Amino acid sequence: MFRGITLIPPDTKIDFVGQRAITWLVSAFLTVVPLFLVATIGLNMGIDFQGGTLIEVQTKESPANLSDIRSKISGLGLGEVQIQEFGAPNAVLIRIASQPKEEEQQASIAKVKGALGDTVEYRRTEIVGPTISSELISGGTVAVVVALLGIMIYVWFRFEWQFAVAAVASLVHDVTATIGLYALLQLEFNVSSIAAILTIIGYSLNDKVVIFDRIRENLRKYKRMPLVKLLDLSINEMLSRAVLTHVTTFLAMLPFLFFGGEAIYGFAVAMCFGIVIGAYSSIFVASPMQLILGVRREAFSASTESAKGPAKDPAKGRAGAAAGA
C-alpha cells in the first residue's frame, strides 16, 4: 500500500543547536555584510522611490524590438532610462529617471513620443514626483516596522517574551539579508520589493511559530531534559514538515523566477531567497536564542497546572464519601 514519500526519517537526530558557535558567525555575517553593502554600493531605487516617468507602450510588431527602442531613446539625454518587456511580447515599459524641474519632466515625455512617433500605441503615462516617492519610502518603512511590532506582541501573548524577542530578532535577520541581496545584485528596489519583504516576514514567522509550539510542548513534557537537547528534539520533530513546506513553496516560485518576465524578476528572486533564509533563521537563529534569553520551564508548567484546575486530596474525597454514606 502506498504510504507517501518520507524525505526526513522520523528518528532524525541532527545536532542543530550544538553547531551554534558556527551558525552564530554565519548569522552575524548575514546581518552585518548586507548593511555594509547598502552603505557602500547602495540600493538600486526604482522610480517608485526615486521619482521619474513611466510610459507603457504597445508595439505593432510582436515581439517588440527592445534594442531598436533603446537606440532611439538613449540619445535624448534623459539620464537613466530602463526599457523592459511588460506582460505581453509587444508590451514595453519605459522608465525615465526624475528630471530636475517639472517642465523638464514633461519635456522628456514629449521627447520620447517624438522619437518613437506613431510606431507604437501609448497606453499610459505616469509621473512620480519626489514628494510621492519620499512618502512611499516612509510608508514602506512604517509598514515593515509595524509588522515586526505586531508580531512581537502576538508571539509574546501566545508564548513568552523570550519567544517574542527571538522571533523579531530572527525576522530582522531575514529582512536585512534580503535587502543585502537587492544591494549585491542591484535589483530594482520598488514597492513590489516592500511587498516581497512583508511576504517573507509572514511566511518565515509561520515556520518559527510551528517550531516554538513544539518547544513549548516539550518543555511541559520533559521536565529534566537539558535545554540544548530539548531544542534539538523539537527542531528534528518538525524538520520533515518544514522541509516539505519550504520545498513546495520554493518550487511554486520557480516559474515566476524563470518565466515571469523582468517586471516581477526582483520579487521572485527575493521570495526564493527569503524562503531559504527563513528556514535557516528558524533553525539556527530563533530556536538557539532561547539559550541566551533563558526561557523558563516554570512558566509553561504553571499554565498547564492552572488549566487542569486545583488538585484534589484523595483523603478528603474518601472522608466526604464516608460522611455521605
UniProtKB/TrEMBL annotation:
InterPro entries: SecD/SecF_arch_bac, SecD/SecF_bac, SecD/SecF_CS, SecD_SecF_C, SecD_SecF_C_bact, SecF_bac. It is found in: Cell membrane. This is Protein-export membrane protein SecF. One of its GO terms (biological process) is protein transport by the Sec complex. Coiled coil: none annotated. It is a multi-pass membrane protein. The gene is secF. The keyword Mitochondrion does not apply. Part of the Sec protein translocase complex. Interacts with the SecYEG preprotein conducting channel. SecDF uses the proton motive force (PMF) to complete protein translocation after the ATP-dependent function of SecA. NCBIfam families: 2A0604s01, transloc_SecF. Its main location: membrane. The keyword Transcription regulation does not apply. The chain crosses the membrane at residues 21-43, 136-157, 164-185, 191-212, 233-258, 264-287. Keywords: Cell membrane, Membrane, Protein transport, Translocation, Transmembrane, Transmembrane helix, Transport. GO terms for molecular function: protein-transporting ATPase activity. Forms a complex with SecD. Part of the essential Sec protein translocation apparatus which comprises SecA, SecYEG and auxiliary proteins SecDF-YajC and YidC. Residues 305-325 are annotated as: Disordered. In the N-terminal section; belongs to the SecD/SecF family. SecD subfamily. Residues 116-293 form the Protein export membrane protein SecD/SecF C-terminal domain. PANTHER family: PROTEIN TRANSLOCASE SUBUNIT SECF (PTHR30081:SF8), PROTEIN-EXPORT MEMBRANE PROTEIN SEC (PTHR30081). One of its GO terms (cellular component) is plasma membrane.
